[in-house]
Structures are given as structure tokens and as C-alpha cells.
From TrEMBL:
InterPro entries: CdaR-like_regulators, PucR_C-HTH_dom, PucR_C-HTH_sf, PucR_dom. This is PucR family transcriptional regulator. Residues 7-123 form the Purine catabolism PurC-like domain. PANTHER family: CARBOHYDRATE DIACID REGULATOR, DNA-BINDING TRANSCRIPTIONAL ACTIVATOR ADER. Residues 434-491 form the PucR C-terminal helix-turn-helix domain. It comes from Mycolicibacterium mucogenicum DSM 44124.
Length: 500
């Protein structure tokens, strides 16, 4: 059985004395919580006795009354204040509120250590601790009973709802939507509350917050998964404490780890298919059959290429698409995420949203057939290059004129073949670095000396190579028109991904 506030006062060795709130002396004390933080009610659970030295205790009457109102709301058993410490003078309104609410306020005589009170309560609640241990064991057993099967729904959240006897949700930390595409999904007012509570770092246990309609929600961290939080709606005065919420969050973390392992297995097989499509090395019938089995009709699917500062988001693109129930295959190459998704605005916009505001995304035209997959991949790369150079978040191939004035992949390929083809071929045969030298020469405003310094070669080497470039291309690097053509060819090569 839990000890009451009255029984604590009757323990002579604790030397506690009552300040106010006599009507609440029969409140059950399940545990203690020591805090000198502002708004301490956010970290206290139902049945707990808050102990404080008063370092952040409000000095004004409004603040003191609010403190008692919030402690009463969450079901705290009382408030104990260390004497001769830092607590400001208690106001008359504070005392009246304590009496009105029946919330006991105790004085802890100096220098009585707070731990002595905690120990007395722990010894008096051994039976309850045993019951909590059994409940904790059942929480972990819920994981065993929910392993395997479809990962689209959080079976652990369902099991915890039954065990804790109140609704439990696993939410995305930013949007507060259900982390799993099939839910369970929290109500809209709970989502708004979770979004507010999840800003910043959540402490151990759970933070108690109210929805606009007055429903109490406990929001806690999910260990090792920074982008997920646990939300528990406490209904009907159900007894829940921070320890139980921590254990529940740990079970959720284990389920999420299993889910991500399953998704990673699927991603790897999809990455192989994506690579074959990009390289054009896949059997057409086999590729079509594989795409259709994944819910991707080649006729209406598109290639998407994306890059950004947050590499983790790029690597986890498959998770974001899974959560939005968008069919996909993905691959990650040299800092760029590639994906095949349905060619709808919803699918492409979901990629843009999931990668954040600093990401740049390019989308191809519709594949139409597996035979055109390699060409579609080049279109996506071209569109991505245009997005990077124009600082647009999304560029669809063919939807806008390239900043170069080159219409698309075919035009760019022709320009590269015409102006750089002889140089690329000569470099491949003789390892002369003509393309690299030309690029450095133009980047250094056609200065022989600065180009030599930038490339760490002799000035005469630069002279020889540039003359060779003019010989092979027929261009003159004193002619503005020829300079422009060579520069456009180099930019087109970059937009094509550096491939001829």
C-alpha cells in the first residue's frame, strides 16, 4: 500500500510539518521527485511528492498560485519545501490556494536530507514497487508478442494501449503524425500538443502537457530515435509515472529498430534494381516485372535525383517514402540520392519535403518503358544540376529552360560530343589532362601563370596543353564565341554527371 501525506507527517524522525492543505492529508504518495527547475509540474507524475529548495520558486502571488494549480492538475500528492534555503516568502494567496485545492504543503526542517524522505516512502511502498515491476515485465513482454508481421503499423503501440489502459501513439517528432503509415494515428488536437512539447530536448521520463480541450498528454523521448516521440493520453486518472513511460519508450525504440532493419533489407534489394536501371543494364521484361511488383508502373514513373547538406536524410529517403506510402526504389551514390517513384506531384513533392529546405531535387520525364530508364536517370541528373545552379528546390526536366540556354540532355550531349569529344578521347589514350586544363584555364580568366599554379604544373605545360586543345577542337581561345562554346560544353558535361 502507498503511504499517505498524513502518515509521512506522523513519522517523527522525518521532522516534517504542515504549512497548509490539511484537507489533502490522505493523498497517496507513490514516489518523490526533487526539482528546482521552473515549471516543475512538467516533470512530476501523478501521486508524486515534489520536493524543492525553492531556487526557481515564483516570488509573486500569481506564479505561486499557478504552481499549486498545475501540481493539483497532474495529481501530485503534495509539495515539500526545504526550510532556510532559497524559497521566497509564501503569499497569502498561495496558502489559500493550497487550502482550496486540498493540496498539502510541507516544510522540510533543515538540514534533513531529501533522500531520507524518499527512502521512507520507498520502504512503505514495497508492495506497490513489486506491482510496478510486474507491470514493467508485461510491457517488455508486449514486444515479444508483437514481433514479426507487417511493419506498417505499430503493434507495440497497440499492445501498450491495452497494458497501460490509455491511448498510446508513436509520433514523428516534427509533424506529430503517426510514425508508422498505418498508425495508430493521434487525434488532431493531440498532434498540435505533441508538436509544441517536442520542441527542444525532452528530459527523462515524460513531459505532461494539456491539449486545448484540457486532455493530458504525456510526451517522452524514444531512446536512439531522435525523430520519434511517445505520446500517451492519460484518461480517467489512470496511474502512470515517469518510470513506466521510460520503459514503454524503450520498447517502442526496440520496435523501431526492428522496423528500420526490415526497411534496410528492402532498400538494399531496391538499390540494386535502381543501379541497373540507371546503368541501362537490366533485362527489360524482368525490370518491368520487378517494378510492377513494387507498385511502380514504368509508363507513369519518374527518376528523381536529390542532394543536400543533410546526408542522413538522403540516406533515409526510403524511410520517408515508406512512411508516406509512396512506392519506390532508391539508391545513394556519391552524395546523391536517386529514386524511382510515381510521376505524381504528391510523390515528387514528398521527396522535396522530406529532405528539408536546403535540398535540391531534379525529376525526369516519365520513364515510359524500362528501355528508357538510363536516359531518364540522365534527365534527372540534368534537372538536379539546373536546380543547384539556379538555387531552385525542384526542377522538372523539360518544364523550364536551362540556365545554360541548352534545351536538355540531347542538346547537352551533342555539345559535349562536338567540343569536348576529341579532348576526352585524347585524354583517355594519352592521359594528358586536356579537359582538366581547359577547365582550369577558363576558371582562372585565361591566365597561364595562375592556371599553372592552380594545377601545380609548369607554365609551359599549360601552354602546350591549351595549344593542343585548340588543335583538336578547331577553337581559338582568343575568340569570345569559341570560349563561350567551350565553357557551355564544360557546364553541360557537369550537368550530365561528368559522363560523355
Amino acid at each position: 500500500m502507498s503511504i499517505t501525506v498524513r502518515e509521512l507527517l506522523d513519522m517523527p524522525h522525518l521532522q516534517l510539518r504542515l504549512h497548509s492543505g490539511k484537507a489533502g492529508l490522505d493523498r497517496q504518495v507513490t514516489w518523490t521527485h526533487t526539482s528546482d527547475l521552473p515549471e516543475p509540474w512538467q516533470w512530476v507524475s501523478s501521486g508524486e511528492l515534489l520536493m524543492t529548495n525553492g531556487m526557481s520558486f515564483p516570488a509573486d502571488a500569481d506564479g505561486q498560485e499557478q504552481l499549486l494549480d498545475e501540481l493539483h492538475r497532474i495529481g501530485a500528492s503534495g509539495l515539500a519545501i526545504g526550510e532556510q534555503m532559497y524559497c521566497p516568502k509564501l503569499t497569502g494567496r498561495f496558502t489559500q490556494a493550497s487550502e482550496r485545492l486540498g493540496l498539502p504543503v510541507l516544510w522540510i526542517r533543515y538540514p534533513m536530507p531529501f533522500v531520507a524522505i524518499s527512502r521512507a516512502i520507498a520502504e512503505a511502498t514495497l508492495l506497490e514497487q513489486s506491482q510496478r515491476l510486474m507491470r514493467t515485465a508485461r510491457i517488455y513482454d508486449a514486444l515479444r508478442r508483437t514481433t514479426g508481421g507487417d511493419v506498417a503499423r505499430s503493434r507495440t503501440a497497440d499492445a501498450l494501449t491495452k497494458e497501460l489502459r490509455c491511448p498510446v501513439f508513436v509520433c514523428d517528432r516534427v509533424t506529430a503524425e503517426a510514425y508508422h503509415p498505418d498508425g495508430p494515428h493521434p487525434p488532431d488536437d493531440v498532434k498540435a500538443t505533441v508538436r509544441t512539447a517536442s520542441q527542444g530536448t525532452l528530459v527523462a521520463g515524460a513531459r505532461s502537457v494539456l491539449t486545448p480541450s484540457g486532455v493530458e498528454v504525456l510526451v517522452g523521448e524514444v531512446p536512439t530515435h531522435d525523430n520519434a516521440v511517445l505520446a500517451v493520453i492519460r484518461e480517467g486518472g489512470v496511474a502512470l509515472d515517469g518510470v513506466l513511460i521510460q520503459h514503454a519508450a524503450t520498447v517502442v525504440a526496440l520496435e523501431l529498430s526492428q522496423t528500420h532493419l526490415a526497411l534496410e533489407h528492402t532498400r538494399r534489394s531496391g538499390a540494386e534494381l535502381t543501379a541497373q536501371l540507371m546503368d541501362g543494364s537490366i533485362d527489360r521484361r524482368g525490370g518491368r516485372r520487378q517494378l510492377l511488383s513494387l507498385g511502380l508502373d514504368p509508363t507513369h514513373s519518374v527518376f528523381v535525383s536529390a542532394t543536400g547538406a543533410d546526408e542522413r536524410r538522403l540516406r533515409d529517403l526510403h524511410v520517408a517514402l515508406w512512411r508516406r506510402r509512396i512506392p519506390h526504389v532508391t539508391a545513394f551514390r556519391s552524395g546523391v540520392a536517386h529514386a524511382v517513384v510515381p510521376g505524381t506531384d504528391e510523390a515528387v513533392d514528398a521527396i522535396v519535403a522530406s529532405l528539408g529546405p536546403n535540398a535540391r531535387v531534379g525529376a525526369s520525364r516519365a520513364l515510359q518503358s524500362v528501355a528508357r530508364s538510363a536516359e531518364s536517370a540522365r534527365e534527372a541528373t540534368w534537372a538536379l544540376g539546373t536546380a543547384q545552379r539556379t538555387d531552385a528546390r525542384l526542377v522538372r526536366y523539360g518544364s523550364a529552360t536551362s540556365w545554360l540556354g541548352v534545351g536538355g540532355v540531347d542538346d547537352a550531349q551533342a555539345m559535349v560530343e562536338r567540343w569536348l569529344g576529341p579532348l576526352i578521347e585524347h585524354d583517355a589514350q594519352h592521359r594528358t589532362g586536356l579537359v582538366e586544363t581547359l577547365e582550369a584555364f577558363l576558371a582562372n580568366q585565361r591566365s597561364w601563370q595562375r592556371t599553372a599554379e592552380a594545377m601545380n604544373v609548369h607554365r609551359q605545360t599549360v601552354l602546350y596543353r591549351i595549344h593542343k586543345v585548340e588543335e583538336l577542337t578547331g577553337a581559338h581561345l582568343t575568340d569570345t564565341a569559341d570560349i563561350a562554346q567551350l565553357w557551355l560544353a564544360l557546364q553541360s558535361r557537369d550537368l550530365l554527371g561528368g559522363s560523355r
